[in-house]
Recover the amino acids of this structure.
């Protein structure tokens, strides 16, 4: 394999900002990305993750801050001068060019010799497993194949950085899993540095070395997948990481890593995230899969069941507490709607966030 | 066999796309017949029944009289450059307008000449471009010229007025074709190292060409049938004696409708052959969607 990533040490975003009129799409984003890393920018739609990617690619000018590739400031450069590979959400393949010409386009623009283009396009096509398809037009390919062409086209020029903007969002579920593995394999084979934008936490968790969670144009938390999954720093990051049950309460006591929170007349123990003071308001965050009906007479959050859905191995229950808070939970048996349940979770699986959110 | 016969006729017709809704096409067919096909065939027959002489007398007369057959070249010499100039003007302006925020305002301003009509534009130009008009007076005042430039009652007068009246149409068509090209394609080109000119040459132009060919045909047909501006701003007896003037003179000065029909038929054939050539060339281009993949 002769395609490999160009050499550099790190890419640095330094208080990068982008305003649209009075709206701050991206605000003071600072981040250092090392060569070889797979970084996921994760967040709900409108959080600024795609804008950040476009700023790095040069498709949008920044309104503040800078981008540095090692010691070189690159944010004044136009996209064609930056030389990053980019995979677009809708692939953006040139519809009038064969797969071969699509993949070879970047090489042609760089003035690479014809025979050399031929050879490298062949290698890139082999890398994304598209041999034998190279004479076709993009319109004759399936979605997954088009995706592979888009990836091959971005990596064949050996860019220091590969940028991917929700590349899997147009594929069906099965293909998405396949391509996910494929993207990681290509990243590893090339030793590439990849920045991957997604709103799918599962995708980010399974692909990335580090995840950057964004919200309202700002970075909320940066960390490894395991880190983010079990130790989110903020309530909104926790929600995004699957802590879908959010219950308001008051802190009764704090003992080291754990705090006891009173919700109505129930007491729930959880792990403290951030600063929590006794007597202050707090939020409990619990994943539905960690919340189960307690044994008869056990303590926990009281709620009335709204409905249950069969999910194969177990049932997902939807319930409502007296104050109107919705709680989802897992149960081994179907519970009739209207029934009362007491729901409890392992204290290590419950997070306590301070403040009135 | 028995299975086919048991399906009612109406259902079999419906499967081929013919049902009661198809009847709605009838008014259009009627109008087409009454307003286009019948007059066309009538004119065709009329052109072969000359006042005197054999069946082809009109056509022989047209092609043996340089005063008549010369109008073809005169008209082409006006219509082709005008069409090309309007297209060449429309492309860069459409590129610029595509990026603008107040697109609608500008589009409206550009469309006004269509609504004004050829005659009003011609009237305006008569004043503006005349020897005492603003245009010449400005150039004289600036000392750029010493005698007024003659822009009226010659080739240039007709050219200018055709460009002005033809531009909005060409521009709007070009703009709509351009808006149909996914902007992500240009962005993809840029991230792959293509500069503005290369992006235009390799990505936008190939995707636009089929649309530009259509635009060319429609603008050309418009310019080819020029009449008012050729009379008002041109030299209808000489350099701008276009083919429609020849038809007009045959019909309303010589009262030879048969000859006029023959001129009209020749006019149609010339237009059609240019359009066919352009469309045939278009057939060799890529004509698929101008999007970058699944939307």
């Amino acid at each position: 394999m002769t395609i490999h990533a160009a050499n550099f040490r790190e890419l640095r975003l330094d208080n990068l900002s982008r305003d649209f009129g009075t709206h701050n799409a991206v605000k003071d984003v600072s981040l250092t990305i090392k060569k070889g890393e797979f970084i996921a920018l994760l967040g709900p739609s409108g959080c600024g993750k795609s804008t950040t990617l476009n700023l790095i690619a040069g498709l949008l000018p920044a309104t503040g801050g800078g981008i540095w590739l090692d010691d070189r400031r690159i944010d004044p450069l136009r996209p064609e001068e930056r030389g990053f590979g980019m995979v677009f959400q809708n692939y953006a393949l040139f519809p009038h060019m064969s797969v071969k010409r699509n993949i070879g386009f970047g090489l042609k623009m760089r003035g690479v010799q014809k025979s050399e283009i031929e050879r490298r396009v062949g290698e890139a096509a082999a890398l994304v497993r598209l041999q034998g398809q190279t004479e076709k037009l993009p319109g004759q390919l399936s979605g997954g194949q088009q995706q592979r062409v888009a990836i091959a086209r971005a990596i064949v020029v050996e860019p220091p950085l590969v940028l991917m903007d929700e590349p899997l969002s147009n594929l069906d579920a099965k293909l998405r899993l396949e391509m996910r593995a494929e993207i990681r394999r290509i990243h590893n084979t090339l030793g590439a540095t990849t920045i991957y934008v997604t709103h799918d936490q599962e995708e980010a968790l399974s692909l990335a070395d580090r995840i950057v969670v964004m919200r309202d144009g700002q970075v909320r938390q940066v960390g490894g997948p395991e880190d983010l999954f079990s130790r989110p720093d903020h309530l909104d990051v926790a929600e995004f990481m699957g802590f879908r049950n959010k219950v308001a309460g008051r802190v009764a006591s704090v003992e080291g890593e754990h705090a006891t929170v009173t919700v109505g007349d129930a007491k729930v123990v959880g792990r403290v995230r951030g600063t929590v003071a006794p007597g202050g308001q707090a939020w409990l965050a619990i994943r539905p899969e960690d919340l189960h009906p307690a044994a008869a007479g056990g303590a926990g959050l009281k709620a009335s069941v709204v409905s249950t859905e069969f999910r194969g191995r177990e049932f997902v229950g939807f319930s409502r507490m007296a104050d109107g808070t919705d709680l989802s939970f897992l149960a081994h048996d179907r519970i009739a709607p209207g029934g009362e349940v007491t729901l409890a979770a392992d204290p290590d699986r419950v997070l306590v966030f301070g403040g009135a959110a | 066999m028995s299975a086919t016969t048991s399906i009612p006729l109406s259902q079999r017709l419906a499967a081929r796309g013919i049902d009661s809704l198809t009847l709605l096409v009838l008014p259009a067919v009627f109008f087409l017949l009454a307003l286009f096909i019948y007059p066309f065939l009538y004119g065709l027959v009329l052109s072969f029944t000359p006042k005197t002489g054999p069946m082809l007398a009109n056509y022989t007369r047209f092609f043996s009289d340089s005063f008549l057959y010369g109008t073809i070249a005169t008209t082409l010499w006006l219509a082709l450059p005008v069409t090309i100039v309007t297209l060449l003007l429309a492309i860069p302006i459409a590129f610029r307008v595509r990026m603008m925020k107040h697109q609608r305002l500008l589009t409206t301003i550009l469309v006004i000449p269509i609504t004004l009509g050829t005659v009003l534009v011609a009237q305006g130009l008569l004043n503006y471009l005349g020897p005492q008009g603003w245009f010449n007076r400005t150039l004289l005042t600036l000392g750029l010229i010493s005698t007024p430039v003659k822009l009226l009652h010659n080739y240039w007068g007709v050219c200018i007025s055709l460009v002005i009246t033809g531009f909005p149409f060409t521009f709007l068509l070009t703009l709509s074709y351009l808006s149909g090209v996914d902007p992500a394609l240009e962005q993809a080109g840029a991230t792959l190292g293509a500069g503005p000119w290369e992006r235009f040459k390799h990505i936008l132009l190939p995707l636009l060409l089929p649309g530009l060919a259509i635009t060319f045909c429609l603008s050309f047909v418009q310019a080819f049938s020029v009449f008012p501006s050729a009379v008002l701003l041109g030299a209808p007896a000489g350099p701008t004696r276009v083919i429609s003037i020849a038809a007009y003179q045959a019909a309303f000065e010589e009262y030879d409708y048969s000859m006029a029909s023959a001129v009209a038929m020749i006019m149609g054939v010339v237009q059609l052959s240019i359009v066919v050539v352009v469309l045939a060339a278009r057939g060799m281009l890529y004509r698929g969607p101008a999007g970058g993949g699944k939307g």
